[in-house]
Specification:
single chain; 36% strand; Nucleoside Triphosphate Pyrophosphohydrolase; 9 strands; 157 residues; alpha+beta
Length: 157
Amino acid sequence: MTHSSTPQQYYASLPRKHFASAAMIFNDDRLLIVKTSYKEGWVLPGGGVDENEGPYAACMREVAEEVGLTVTSARLGGTAFLNTNPVRGDIVELFWICDVADRGAVKIDGHEIVDAMWATRDECKQIMRYGLGFRTLAVWDAWSAGRAAYIENDRVF
C-alpha cells in the first residue's frame, strides 16, 4: 500500500479473481458429469461462487440446482488457477470430492442441464471439454493417490 492511498483505494486496486466450485461425485469408478445447454462438451456439476457465498456452500447449491442431489459432505480435492481467458479474467476453480445422500436420485432440469451420465475415467478423457477434462483427471489421479492437486494454467504441481 502506498502512503498516499487509503485501505479502500489499495484494496480496490488489487486484481479481481472469480471463484468457481466443481463437484466430483463418484459412483464406484464412475464420475457424474453433465451436459449444459450453453457449453460444448461435458462438464462437472458446479459453477460460479456468488457474492457473499463460500466455495463449499456454492458447491452444495450447484449440485442441488443442477442434478437434484444433496451433498452430505465434501472434501477439497484440488485447486486450479486459470488466467488464460481475457474475457472472464482470472479464475480460481475448487474441485470438491462429494458424498451425496442418494446417487440414484439424479434429476436434471432439462433447461440448464440437458443430460447427465456416470462416466469412466476414459470416457471423461474423451468427452469432457479439454481444459476442464485435463484438470478433472489431474484431481482424480491425485485423489486416488491420497493427495490434493494444484493446477496452474493446466500445469500440475
